[in-house]
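Run log // design_07
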């Protein structure tokens, strides 16, 4: 009888634990996951293309709430924006409102020195969903700022000064000739070539970068950092990671002055170190590689650090769809 009672109590406890867990999952799905999902699935009520021409604009800001953005350089003085606009209604009765709202999209306004293109200048009605995919072509000497809440960004080779401010945004830059700044909350950052420096920040995502000039500052809270310093023209490199590893490759002919530390991890360095104050322990590394041209500082909280040789087989991991 006593064993039977114990079995019943154990069953009740298991049942209660399962019910509590199921309730927590349900609450998370309803209050956290569901609000971020599209409420409407199906054919859009509005599906149209629109083109803008911005003549002689030196500083352009493009703000997009939902949709991907592609950026390409162009010759001349004209910047062009091609938009595919799709508006989804919740019910067929909302079709007229969808048409009226679509007519209000893509407003061009002068905001100080900036020529601003706001895809949704007015507050979106609750019964509509909107997606605006953009192709932006700008001259190389034009400064471009992209503000994207929900959507990815791809920038082609040869773009000039570019700033990307994202929320739920993966960013790929195939080649930046001007200064590059990327800040995203949830998303990966991949830079295949940066010639004039880069400042890269994400909270939830990894950072992968090849840089050949200027200064590199990169930080993530949750993810990995992989940085390839391709030439001695990279004068400074500061990398910070709270939860994840950091890998830096130095090819032959690229020296660095190292200041490396990790709180919970280990440090590996494939290069011989020199200098009067060489320090090499499991979690702290100081010294000079070759001529020490690049000032390299790495701070990791929970993760390992690897200072690798160029050609060590370290890949530029990750990738962002276009």
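design_07 sequence
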């Amino acid at each position: 009888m006593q064993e039977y009672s114990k079995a019943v109590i154990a069953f009740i406890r298991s049942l209660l634990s399962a019910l509590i867990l199921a309730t927590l999952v349900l609450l998370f799905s309803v209050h956290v996951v569901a609000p971020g999902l599209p409420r409407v699935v199906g054919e859009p009520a509005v599906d149209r293309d629109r083109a803008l021409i911005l003549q002689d604009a030196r500083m352009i800001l493009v703000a997009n709430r939902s949709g991907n953005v592609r950026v390409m350089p162009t010759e001349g003085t004209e910047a062009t924006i091609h938009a595919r606009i799709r508006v989804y209604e919740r019910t067929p009765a909302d079709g007229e409102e969808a048409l009226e709202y679509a007519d209000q999209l893509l407003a061009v306004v002068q905001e100080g020195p900036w020529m601003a293109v706001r895809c949704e200048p007015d507050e979106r009605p609750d019964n509509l969903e909107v997606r605006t995919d953009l192709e932006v072509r700008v001259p190389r000497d034009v400064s471009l700022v992209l503000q994207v809440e929900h959507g990815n960004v791809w920038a082609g080779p040869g773009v000039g000064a570019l700033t990307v401010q994202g929320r739920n945004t993966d960013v790929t830059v195939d080649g930046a000739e001007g200064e590059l700044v990327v800040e995203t909350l949830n998303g990966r950052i991949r830079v295949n070539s940066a010639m004039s420096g880069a400042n890269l920040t994400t909270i939830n995502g990894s950072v992968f970068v090849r840089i050949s000039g200027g200064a590199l500052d990169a930080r993530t809270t949750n993810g990995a950092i992989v940085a390839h310093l391709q030439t001695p023209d990279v004068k400074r490199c500061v990398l910070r990671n709270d939860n994840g590893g950091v890998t830096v490759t130095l090819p032959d002919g690229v020296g660095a002055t190292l200041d490396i530390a990790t709180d919970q991890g280990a440090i590996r360095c494939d290069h011989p170190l020199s200098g009067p104050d060489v320090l090499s322990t499991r979690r702290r590394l100081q010294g000079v590689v070759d001529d020490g041209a690049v000032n390299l500082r790495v701070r990791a909280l929970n993760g390992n650090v690897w200072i690798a040789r160029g050609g060590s087989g370290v890949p530029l991991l990750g990738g962002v769809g276009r």
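The chain has two domains: 45-139, 152-311.
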